[in-house]
C-alpha cells in the first residue's frame, strides 16, 4: 500500500492489543482486514513496535462498520493487555499517585501516540489535560474511544467509582447511545468538542495507587525520558515542509518565507533544499492538495464546497479547475466514478 502523508504519525503497536481479540469475540476474523489497511497484526503483540496511527484508525473504523457497532472501539478496550505498550504502560500502572500518573502521561503521551496537541495544566481547583491528533488523521473516533477507555481503566486503580467526578470532552460526534460511554468513562461527558479534554478536580490528584510500585515507576519513567520525540524538521526539511503544508491547508497555507522562518533557515537556503529534492513550494502545495482531495472525496461525505475550503481554495471554481488537471474530470465525477467501483 502506497505510503501517505498521514503515515508519518505513529502509535505504539501494543496500544491496539485488544482489537483483534474483541473482533474475534464477536465472530470477525480481523487479520485480513488489518492487512488490507496496510497493517501486520502480528506486530500488535510486540513491545516497542510502532505502526501507522492513521492505518490503525482506518482499521478500527472498518471493523466498526463491519460489526455494525459504533461502540466497537470503546468495547475493545476491555481486551487491552495492560503493559503491552512497554514502559509507558507499566509506568501508568505503577504511578504512586494520580498526580504522578497525569504528569507522566502529559510528558510522554506524544511518544506513544503522536499527537498534534498534548498539554497538561494543574491549577488550584482542577487539572486540565488536552490532546488531539493531526488533521490528516481523518477517521479517529474508534481509536480515541479505545485509548480513552484504556486510560480510564488506569485511573480506576486510583479512584474507583470517584472516576465519575472527572469531566470528559471528546471531539467525536455524539453516538446514538451514550450510556456505554457514561458507564466506561464518566457520566460527565460532552461530545463535538474542539479538542479532547479531561478535567479532574484537584482534590483527587493526591489519591494513592494501592497497586503502585514506586521503584518500578521510576525505572519506567527513566526509560521513557530516554526516548526522544521524533523531529522530522531536524532530519528532513523537505518532508517537514510537506507535512506542515498538508496540515495547514485549511487555515493558512504556508509560504516559502514562513516555512523558512519556522525551520530556522533563510528562504534562499530552503529554496535550494527544495530544488535539490526536485520540487518547489508550489509543487508541494499542489501535491498535498491532490492527496488530501482524493482522501476527502473518497473517504468522507463532505460537500464539494467544504472540501475545497479544507484544501485552501478561495472559490469552488478553483478546486474544480485543479481537480480537472489532477483527474481529468470534475470532483463530483471523480467521486461518483470511484464510489461506483467500490
Amino acid at each position: 500500500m502506497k505510503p501517505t502523508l498521514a503515515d508519518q504519525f505513529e502509535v505504539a503497536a501494543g496500544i491496539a492489543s485488544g482489537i483483534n481479540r474483541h473482533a474475534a469475540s464477536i465472530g470477525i476474523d480481523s487479520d485480513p482486514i488489518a492487512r488490507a489497511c496496510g497493517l501486520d497484526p502480528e506486530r500488535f503483540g510486540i513491545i516497542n513496535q510502532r505502526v501507522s496511527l492513521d492505518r490503525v484508525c482506518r482499521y478500527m473504523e472498518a471493523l466498526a462498520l463491519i460489526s455494525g457497532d459504533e461502540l466497537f472501539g470503546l468495547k475493545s478496550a476491555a481486551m487491552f493487555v495492560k503493559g503491552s505498550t512497554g514502559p509507558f504502560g507499566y509506568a501508568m500502572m505503577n504511578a504512586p499517585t494520580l498526580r504522578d500518573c497525569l504528569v507522566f502521561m502529559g510528558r510522554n503521551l506524544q511518544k506513544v501516540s503522536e499527537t498534534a496537541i498534548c498539554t497538561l495544566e494543574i491549577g488550584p481547583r482542577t487539572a486540565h489535560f488536552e490532546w488531539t491528533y493531526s488533521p490528516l488523521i481523518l477517521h479517529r473516533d474508534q481509536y480515541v474511544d479505545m485509548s480513552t477507555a484504556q486510560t480510564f481503566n488506569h485511573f480506576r486503580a486510583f479512584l474507583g467509582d470517584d472516576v465519575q467526578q472527572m469531566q470528559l470532552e471528546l471531539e467525536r460526534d455524539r453516538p446514538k447511545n451514550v450510556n456505554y460511554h457514561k458507564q466506561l468513562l464518566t457520566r460527565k461527558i460532552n461530545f463535538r468538542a474542539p479538542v479532547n479534554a479531561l478535567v479532574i478536580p484537584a482534590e483527587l490528584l493526591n489519591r494513592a495507587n494501592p497497586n503502585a510500585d514506586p521503584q518500578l515507576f521510576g525505572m519506567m519513567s527513566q526509560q521513557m525520558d530516554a526516548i526522544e520525540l521524533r523531529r522530522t524538521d531536524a532530519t528532513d526539511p523537505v518532508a517537514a515542509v510537506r507535512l506542515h503544508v498538508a496540515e495547514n491547508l485549511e487555515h493558512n497555507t504556508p509560504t516559502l518565507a514562513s516555512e523558512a522562518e519556522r525551520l530556522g533557515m533563510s528562504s534562499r537556503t530552503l529554496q535550494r533544499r527544495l530544488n535539490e529534492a526536485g520540487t518547489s513550494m508550489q509543487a508541494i502545495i499542489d501535491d498535498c492538495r491532490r492527496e488530501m482531495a482524493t482522501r476527502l472525496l473518497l473517504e468522507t461525505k463532505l460537500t464539494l464546497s467544504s472540501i475545497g475550503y479544507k484544501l485552501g481554495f478561495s472559490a469552488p471554481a478553483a478546486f474544480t479547475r485543479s481537480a480537472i488537471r489532477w483527474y481529468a474530470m470534475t470532483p463530483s465525477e471523480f467521486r461518483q466514478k470511484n464510489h461506483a467501483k467500490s
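The first strand starts at residue 10 and ends at 12. The chain has 17 helices and seven strands.
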